[in-house]
C-alpha cells in the first residue's frame, strides 16, 4: 500500500470508531483530491469550478453518511473512487449540458457502496438537514434526495429556479461546514 493509502485508511478506520478529530482530518485531506478530480473532468467540457465545488461537497457528505459501509479489510481508495465517480455520474445525469464519458480506470477496482440507507445515516442526515433554514432544507431534499428537477422544485415551493440553485449550493456548503465543525468538536 502507498503512504497515501495507509494514511487515508488509518483515518477512515479511526473515523468509523467515532474519533471525530480523525474524521475531520480525513475530510480535510480528501477535499483537495476530490476538487482536482472533479475539475479535471468538468472543466474540459466547459463546466465551471463552482460545479466542481458542488460535487466536492456532495462527495464529502456521502463519505460522511456512508462511512459505515467501508469494509476495513479492503483498500480505502477504491471505495473513495467509487463514491466520487457515482456522484459525478449522478450530477451529469441531472445536469445534462453536454455529453461526456466517465471512464472506469482499468487499474483500479471499484466497489459499489450499499444503496440502502442505514438507520444511522438517515438519523445523521435528518439532524444535519434540521440545522438548515427551512427553504434551504426543502430545496436540498427535493433536488438532491428526492431527485426532483430544479424547475419542479421551484414550482412546488414558489421559488425561482435560480433561487433553488442558490439554496442548494449554499445549503451544501453549510452542510460541509457543519460536518467539519462536528468533526472538530
Automatic annotation (TrEMBL):
The keyword Transcription regulation applies. Keywords: DNA-binding, Sigma factor, Transcription, Transcription regulation. The keyword Transmembrane helix does not apply. InterPro entries: RNA_pol_sigma-70-like (IPR039425), RNA_pol_sigma-70_dom (IPR014284), RNA_pol_sigma70_r2 (IPR007627), RNA_pol_sigma70_r4_t2 (IPR013249), RNA_pol_sigma_r2 (IPR013325), RNA_pol_sigma_r3/r4-like (IPR013324), WH-like_DNA-bd_sf (IPR036388). Residues 126-175 form the RNA polymerase sigma factor 70 region 4 type domain. GO terms for biological process: DNA-templated transcription initiation. It comes from the Bacteria. GO terms for molecular function: DNA binding; sigma factor activity. This is ECF RNA polymerase sigma factor SigM. It comes from Bradyrhizobium ivorense.
Amino acid at each position: 500500500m502507498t503512504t497515501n493509502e495507509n494514511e487515508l485508511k488509518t483515518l477512515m478506520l479511526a473515523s468509523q470508531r467515532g474519533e471525530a478529530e480523525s474524521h475531520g482530518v480525513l475530510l480535510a485531506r480528501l477535499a483537495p483530491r476530490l476538487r482536482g478530480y472533479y475539475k479535471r473532468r468538468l472543466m474540459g467540457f466547459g463546466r465551471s469550478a463552482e460545479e466542481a465545488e458542488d460535487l466536492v461537497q456532495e462527495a464529502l457528505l456521502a463519505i460522511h453518511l456512508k462511512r459505515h459501509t467501508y469494509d476495513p479489510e479492503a483498500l480505502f481508495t477504491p471505495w473513495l473512487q467509487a463514491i466520487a465517480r457515482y456522484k459525478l455520474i449522478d450530477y451529469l445525469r441531472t445536469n445534462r449540458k453536454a455529453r461526456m464519458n466517465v471512464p472506469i480506470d482499468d487499474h483500479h477496482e471499484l466497489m459499489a457502496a450499499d444503496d440502502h440507507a442505514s438507520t444511522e445515516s438517515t438519523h445523521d442526515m435528518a439532524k444535519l438537514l434540521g440545522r438548515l433554514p427551512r427553504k434551504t432544507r426543502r430545496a436540498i431534499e427535493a433536488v438532491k434526495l428526492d431527485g426532483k428537477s430544479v424547475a419542479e422544485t421551484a414550482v412546488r415551493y414558489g421559488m425561482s429556479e435560480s433561487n433553488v440553485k442558490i439554496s442548494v449550493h449554499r445549503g451544501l456548503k453549510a452542510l460541509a461546514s457543519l460536518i467539519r465543525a462536528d468533526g472538530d468538536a
